[in-house]
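User: Please predict the structure of the protein below. I'd like the answer in structure-token form so I can feed it into my own downstream comparison script.

Assistant: Understood. Taking the following sequence of 365 residues as input:
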Amino acid sequence: MKCSRVKNLYDYVPLVPISKMVSTSMLILISSVLSLARNECMAQGDPPAAPVAVSRIVQMEVPRPVKMVGTVFPLRESMVACEVKGLVKAFPVKRGDRVKKGQVLAQLTTISLEIQLKGARADKHLALLKFQRAEELFESATISHQELDEFEMKLVAQEAVVDAIEDNIGKCTVTAPFDGRITEEYTEVGQWLDQGEKVVSMIELNSVKIRVPVPEKYLQNVKVGDECKVSISALGGIIRTGHILHIVPQADTRSRTFPIYIKLDNEDEMIKSGMFAEATFEVGPLLSATMILKDGIVRRVERKFIYLAIDGKAIEVPISTGVSYKNLIQVFDDVEPGTDVIVRGNERLRDGQSVRVTGRIDPDT
């Protein structure tokens, strides 16, 4: 019997009341010995079978990846201008600043407009009083309906004057049209700006777009929404997944390439406008390849392998990988199509461990 030693240890425990034991330390020693013995006994037995999900290794034709070089552009860029003329009294931003939509970029003086507003409001009040008196005269048949309409039109016109001045005062505060960063400054405190003059340039970098010139022979194999991988060499070759945003239907007449724009998420703003990027499109000639779900790959230190599910055991097989296609990846070495590879629960397995298949996730071929 595997655990007989644990049972026999109890033969050495004195069968006397605890109060008559030599010391408490003796109890602690005996307890420790028993605990270690039990742990050793448990380690001798096999652990229970680990629940896993498997997927079938398949042989299929996949398009070869084609790499093309592109350039990073901001998703949006704007030359922010002032809508009214005036003197700049505050300019709280500078190049490189990150700003939120609605944040103040520049403030023009509004003193003269506020004076005009006071006069316009007084005229509006006077026009209102005249209109109210005209209504009383109309009810007593002293004036005609046409004369009443004239007083009403004067009131409406004066209200429009007040609204226009208030609008101009609001336009004296120049704000950011979207979240982004300031790339250029065009004014300073104390400078006079005419209507339409530039205040700042800004770009949005939370997302970026990659402009890639694609040869015409590949154009028929790509469409808006397609997924592609983008590598940024300036950032150590980091790879991010993007989607085709636009396909421009006008070719460059000299190179016969069509501009394609790929959108990438860039919340950390690591990718900067103007960087070079390498986009990978799955548009090349077909390749017959042995493919598995990417979740089947296990990486530990510098090793890369998969676990095959064979006769209730996890069998470790070192592999090398090739082309990717959607959620599949090509594998080489000692693997056969039709064999089950473990794709869930494989992170903590060890070679030869018992497994219990609880699900199947076969690739869509």
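That's the full token string. Confidence is low (pLDDT under 50) at residues 1-22.
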